[in-house]
Specification:
Blueprint: E1 4-13, E2 16-26, E3 29-34, H1 41-48, E4 56-61, E5 64-65, H2 69-76, E6 79-82, H3 94-104, H4 112-122, H5 138-150, E7 156-160, H6 168-182, E8 186-191, H7 194-200, E9 203-208, E10 211-217, H8 218-223, H9 234-247
Parallel strand pairs: 3-8, 3-9, 6-7, 7-8
Antiparallel strand pairs: 1-2, 1-4, 4-5, 9-10
Helix pairs in contact: 3-4, 3-5, 4-5
The structure holds adenosine-5'-triphosphate.
């Protein structure tokens, strides 16, 4: 089932057309959005999260074409989003913050306490649920961000640079969580770390200058490289080769 469908999608960031003509068909699974700084990853994620309205093109999420206020409301209830810069109230406890976000997503009140408990457990913060956010490490706050994104068991989960600030053990736990979620969720993860893609993603979307340079499996990305390319492993060499070819 196609969860995210885009044709000729163009999205502005300020004056620049940061996403400049992208076609997408994403099903359940983990999709890594990879690309150098400024490629347009965050702008694409913001458009999928319905934060930015496309300048032109078609965008359908969960079978609903985005446009009317009603369509946005319907879709927002079924997506989870961790922005790159995620704002929070330091005085909230972990539980209060995730509850508040569940409420903003218009979850039914009776479902909220159980859903919050599950989300906080899944990110490994069960024993910190009553601690204030101001007392947590940066990596733990990132995990709270992931908890708020998954609390409504979204059908599309959008995570912008979710592994920034996570230590190696946290990264491994996070990848396991993605794998678990991917069975019945379309997970889109933006990163500039090729290793995140290698370890956790089924499909890769390589972006540069607002366009998609490559879309396919991690093995196909690896196959695009040659031994003369820059990179420590086949995936990095594939990544460099595709960016080099596009620059020529
Ligand atoms: N608010 C803005 N005003 C003007 N230009 C912007 C704005 N936001 C982004 N841009 C520009 O749009 C382009 C794409 O930015 P975007 O943040 O989507 O890229 P990115 O791939 O997420 O980069 P990074 O890996 O550095 O986060 C960049 O050239 C950036 O400078």
């Amino acid at each position: 089932m196609v969860r995210v469908h885009a044709v000729g999608l163009r999205v502005r960031a300020g004056r620049r057309m940061a996403v400049d003509g992208i076609d997408l068909d994403l099903e359940n699974g983990v999709h890594g959005v990879l690309g150098p700084n400024g490629a347009g990853k965050t702008t694409l994620m913001r458009a999928l999260a319905t934060v930015l309205r496309p300048a032109s093109g078609e965008l359908t999420m969960l079978g609903t074409a985005l446009g009317s206020r009603e369509s946005l409301r319907q879709v927002r209830e079924r997506i989870g989003y961790l922005p790159q810069k995620f704002g929070y109230y330091k005085r909230f406890t972990v539980r209060e913050f995730v509850e508040y976000m569940a409420w903003l997503k218009q979850m039914p009140g009776v479902d909220i306490p159980g859903a919050v408990e599950r989300a906080v457990e899944r990110v490994g913060l069960g024993d910190r649920a009553d601690d204030k956010l101001s007392t947590l490490s940066g990596g733990m706050v990132r995990r709270v961000g992931i908890a708020q994104a998954i609390v409504n068991e979204p059908a599309v989960l959008l995570l912008d640079e979710p592994t920034a600030g996570l230590d190696p053990a946290e990264r491994m736990r996070f990848r396991a969580l993605l794998r678990e979620s991917a069975e019945d969720t379309c997970v889109v993860v933006s990163t500039h770390l090729v290793e995140d893609v290698a370890a956790g993603c089924d499909q890769v979307l390589l972006m540069d200058k607002g366009r998609v340079l490559f879309q396919g499996g991690t093995d196909e990305l690896a196959a695009a490289g040659e031994s003369s390319e820059v990179g420590d492993n086949p995936l990095e060499r594939g990544y460099s080769a595709l960016l080099d070819r596009a620059a020529r």
